[in-house]
Amino acid sequence: MPGTGLRKRLRKASSTVPDSGLTGPIDIPDPKQDDQPKDLRARWHRLRTNVAGTVRGLPRVISLTWRASPPMTILIALSTLISGLVPTVTAYIAKLLLDAVVAAVAGHGSTNRIVEITLFQLGVFTLTALSTALTNVAQQLLQERMTLTIRHQVMAHAAKLDLEFFEGSESYDLLRQASQEAPSRPVSMMTSALSLVRTAITFASMVALLVSVNPLLAAVALLAPIPAFISQSKYGSRAFMLALYISPIRRRMDYLSSLVTTDTYAKETKVFGLGDYLVDRFRRLGQTYYARERKLTTTRNVVGTAWGLLSTLAGSGIALYIALEAVAGRLTIGDLALYTSAATAVQTSVQGLFNGFTGMYENNLYLDTLYQFLGTRPGITAPSRPRALPSPVRGHVEFRDVSFSYPGADEAALDGVSFEIRPGETVAVVGRNGAGKSTLIKLLCRLYDPTAGRILLDGTDIREFDPDELRAQISAMFQDYVTYQGTAAENIGLGQLSGLDDRERIVDSARRAGAAERLERLPKGYDSPLGRWFDQGVSLSGGEWQKVALARAFMRDAPVLILDEPTSALDAQAEHDLFARLRALAAGRTTLYISHRFSTVRQAEKILFLERGKLVEQGTHDELMALGGQYADLFTLQAAAYA
Ligand SMILES: Nc1ncnc2c1ncn2[C@@H]1O[C@H](COP(=O)(O)OP(=O)(O)OP(=O)(O)O)[C@@H](O)[C@H]1O
Question: Who's near 396: CB < 8 A, 6+ residues apart?
Answer without folding.
Answer: 420, 421, 422, 423, 456, 457, 458, 459, 590
